[in-house]
Amino acid sequence: MIHMNQPLSIQPQRLRDSIEELGRIGSYLDDSSGLRGVNRLALTAADGEGRRHVVAKMRALGMSVTIDRIGNVYARRSGRDDSLAPVMMGSHIDSVPTAGKFDGCLGVLGALEIIHTLEDAQRVTRRPLVVAFFTDEEGSRFGTDMLGSAVATGRLPLAEAYAYKDRAGLTVESELRKIGFLGDAEEKLTPPHAYLECHIEQGPVLRSQNLDIGVVTGVQSISWHELSIVGRSAHAGTTPMELRADASVAASRINLRLRDMARSGKYGAQMRATMGAMVPVPGLVNIIPGRMTVTVDLRNPDDNLMRSAEADIIAFYDQVAHEEGVQITWRQTARTDCVQFDPRIMAQIDAAAAHRGLSRMRIVSGAGHDAQEMAHLTRAAMVFVPGEWNGISHNPREFSTPEQCANGVNVLLDVLLAIAEEP
User: Fold this and answer.
1) pTM to 2 decimals?
2) Which residues touch 42 (CB under 8 Å, ≥6 apart)?
3) Can you tell me the mean pLDDT for 320-330?
4) How many CB atoms lie within 10 A of CB 296?
5) How many degrees, rounded to 5, is the angle at CA 195 between CA 194 and CA 199?
6) Residue 118 to residues 77, 91, 123, 159, 261, Cα–Cα distance (Å)
7) 8 Å CB contact between 346 and 415
């Protein structure tokens, strides 16, 4: 139970300032909107600078900082009984190339704001507290998401993670070393007492219903494929249509099939399907593409329906290859089943929001998060806050107000204080 009269609260402006400071690292001007976006791809120089900035904030709060062998960073605040397993909060600070300031960063900086608030109040919890940020949650550079937390929880072997390469052929291990975050601490986490994460919703549901808080019930299943489609490059003006082996036509057919599958209802009303990357070779106006590299992103809140969709699209790859006279090979770059969060912590989040007079709803996360990996190791839960502009994310327009952010972090604070006093 959560018992609160006048609950301790964070400083919204201090949190806002912290988000703005980190948002200036990797900042760029988006020509289409005129807004400043963020590009801190995992393990780039900008990511390294952002990491050093956050580590400095952790140490300024008196926390002891540990870096593990996959570059995950953990900052610990002692408890009254430091022998107990800690309560962990966290998220990520890497970004997609076209990001806003809030994705992941709210979870990390909001957790540090909670620590700052406890320091101001001279309040020490029974259990120690840990604030974490995980390596390459986004997956935009090395092709697999939640990389750091997947290694920490044992789903992804360290050697396999080290060997992942970006498009330039650079490995995770070499890039960790380059930015100075190839740590020496054991990468397999000892299970914390619980894991909590505050995050922007990255969707329109909460804002469209004028709700303050999302009580996240879990994360839907995610499946990523990378396809290599090999046809035959030829002259665009002299090659008859019936004699072509056009890799781009094969890719387009697969993309349209993804849309038809999502709209069909056969795989449930909430299926999502996206071809997010399409790279033609040689990519010139007057040459038929002889090769295409494309990606497929499938999402579904039902594991059985996801498996059905996967089987059907894979069979379609073979059909297209035969009909278009091309070769198609594919590999799985990410795959996670649906994850359910801890019911007891969800109830605590609901109670904390109610006590603060905040409207709320239960919601399934459409995006992947480090919390889904942590849920395999310990009790885990998430708090969502709404976003303006229909909750747009992975876009410079991504924006949650100081009040929206503070509401979510204050709810997290209330739940943290309750869990951190458990025996």
Assistant:
1) 0.92
2) 94, 135, 136, 138, 140, 141, 142, 147, 175
3) 98
4) 23
5) 150
6) 10, 20, 5, 39, 50
7) no
Q: Rounded to 5 degrees, what angle do the CA atoms 337, 342, 344 make?
A: 160
> Residue 16 corresponds to which amino acid?
R
| 39 within 8 A of 24, measured Cβ to Cβ | no
Q: What is the per-residue burial (b if ≥16 Cβ within 10 Å, else e) of 24-45?
A: ebbeeebeeeeeebbbbbbbbe
**Strand pairing of 213-219 and 360-365?**
parallel
Tokens linked to 59: 């140490």
Each residue's pLDDT tens digit, 13-64: 999 999 999 999 999 999 988 999 999 999 999 999 999 999 999 999 999 9
Burial class (CB in 10 A: 0-12, 13-18, 19+), 91: buried
- Mean pLDDT, the chain, rounded, equals 97
Q: Which two tokens stand for residue 249?
A: 């036509």
Locate 326 and state its tokens.
């091309």
Separation in Å, CA 295 to CA 40, 163, 333, 394:
21, 20, 9, 17
The predicted structure's pLDDT at residue 128: 98
| Distance, CA of 367 to CA of 220 (rounded, Å) | 8
The residue count for the chain:
423
5: confidence class by pLDDT, cuts 50, 70, 90:
low
pLDDT greater than 60 at residue 3? no
Contact predicate 178/397, CB 8 Å: no
Question: What single-letter amino acid sits at 179?
Answer: I
What pLDDT is attached to residue 7? 86
Q: Are strands 213-219 and 339-340 parallel, antiparallel or unpaired?
A: antiparallel
